[in-house]
Amino acid sequence: MIITNIETVPGKNIVEHFGLVSGSTIRAKHVGRDIMASLKNLVGGELKGYTQLLQESRQQALDRMVDQARQLGANAVINVRFSTSSVAQGAAELYAYGTAVSVE
Amino acid sequence: MHMEQPFLLSKRRLSVYNLLFFITLVAVGYLAGTFAERYHYRSIDHREKMFINLPAVTIKTVNYPDDKIQSAELVYGSAVISIDYFKRFTASLRNIFGGTVTSYESLIDRARREALLRMKEMAGDSKIIVNVRIETSTIGRNANKKGVGCLEAIAYGTALIMDQ
Amino acid sequence: MKYTPRLPKSNVNVTPTSRLREFFILTLCLLGIVIAIYILLGFAVDMIVPRISTDLETKMSELFIRSLDAEDIDSEWGGYVQSLVENLQKRCTKLPYLFKVHVRNASSVNALTLPGGHIIVFTGLLDKMTSENELAFVFAHEMSHYANRDHLRGVGRAFVFITLATFLFGTDSNISKMLAHALNITELSFSRNQETRADEFALELLNCAYGNVAGATDFFAKIPKEQDPGKFGRYFASHPENLKRIVDLNKIIRDRGFRTAGEKPLPKIVQQSKNKNEM
């Protein structure tokens, strides 16, 4: 599945489109990560736990969007945008949306 | 706290009433929330079928020839969905154990799809809605503290109306 | 651009698990962890509390309990109850505490113990006393709590528990509030066992000091009716129902063969003050 952030897929023709597809996810951290973060607040450095949480979040959102596009019969998603909001404290919410198209 | 040792019975029913009240809130939240959600999803599915012929896309350029386009105007739709107590409690449990907060998933899904549908309703007769963007935010009393008050989703785009 | 209208077959954005099932699994896991920690704490407290010396306890309690004397009232009871308690301690127990009795003005028919050897007794209770033995039983019961270090156990466990909850869940969390309430309720059934043991110890003390246990059960028969919590309140009262208490006390008296005759009346000076109050 090709995913791009621009309006075209370079080198390919867009044949048809299927409308908007989106994937959203919301993941919470657990107390272990929380405690490590509090400790890191003392010494500083990268919060690997949270970075990992956000990466997992992003990956899941993209996967869901691709899944929905596949269900519509598309093979590419163009003009993808990310959006986030603080829907719950201590949870990472991510929303990815784009246009599902068929390219060749 | 248990510092004092009273000689006679002391009325500690306050704790029990508190717990019972809490359980009642959770139960009421679950029942009411599930009912509202099911009804809303049915409505959303029905309307999405209705609007299937009006696509919304995030791209800007669609290759319709300019002289065929009658007008283009901004259309938007927004929805504010609130959280029930059951969802809130399950989410705080999730915060302890980690993982996907499934109770909020349906909430944000509903809000966004509702906002898109309302945008399509506003578009009316247009052929396509381009450059759609979706924004979400939280509003309400608990928005800045722990927990969520309500979730607001707004979808906006440009609707293109063609010559007939 | 050609548009092909299609609808997705399933909703990818919502995990298809049952909400209720997830709720129950999570709650049961949490309860399991909480109960495990609670039991561990119970063992820890049982090991540590006997090792806290009474000196240390007195010093620590002085940090938390500021001047208790300020609320004491000056009455004829003051000197009498203090000497009564000191008498009990000198003759019949080896408790290493410096007991101090505080008389407070309140209609509550109750007496309390605080760490460090402070016993608070309310005038509401004193006014209902008709014999010295009765009063002595009340104090003996309070003193026996010290013998078992009951007050420390409850404090220790609750303290650690709430600290842990605050550390994990944050200060304002709903969950930690609910856990605190649940803890409060379970603490009640522990203290019921503690109370029964205290009653037994008090009977022994009374027998030692007076040669009989007269007056031990008199008190419970006099308790005002509204203090009886009824069937529902039974679990949630921190003391066994008074009627049951009388039954249990009588059973111990029969089993141990204590004598029940020989009441010693209250000294004249407090009798006079009682008569004054009743008028």
Structure description:
The complex is a heterotrimer of chains A (104), B (164) and C (279). Chain A is an alpha+beta fold and 104 residues long. Chain A has a single domain, classed as Hypothetical protein apc22750. Chain B (Translation Initiation Factor IF3, 2-Layer Sandwich). Chain A has two helices and four strands, in the order ββααββ. Chain A is elongated and about 55 Å long. By secondary structure, chain B is of the alpha+beta class. Chain B has one domain (13-162): Hypothetical protein apc22750. Chain B (Translation Initiation Factor IF3). Chain B contains three helices and four strands, in the order αβαβαββ. Chain B has a three-stranded antiparallel sheet with strand order 1-4-3. In chain B, α1 runs parallel beside α3. The relative contact order of chain C is 0.11. By secondary structure, chain C is mainly α. Chain C has one domain (63-278). The model of chain C is unreliable at 234-238 (pLDDT under 50). The radius of gyration of chain C is 26 Å and the shape is elongated. Chain C is built from eleven helices and four strands. Chain C has a three-stranded mixed sheet with strand order 2-4-3. Chains in contact: A-B, A-C, B-C. β2 (14-30) of chain A pairs parallel with β1 of chain C, so a sheet runs across the interface.
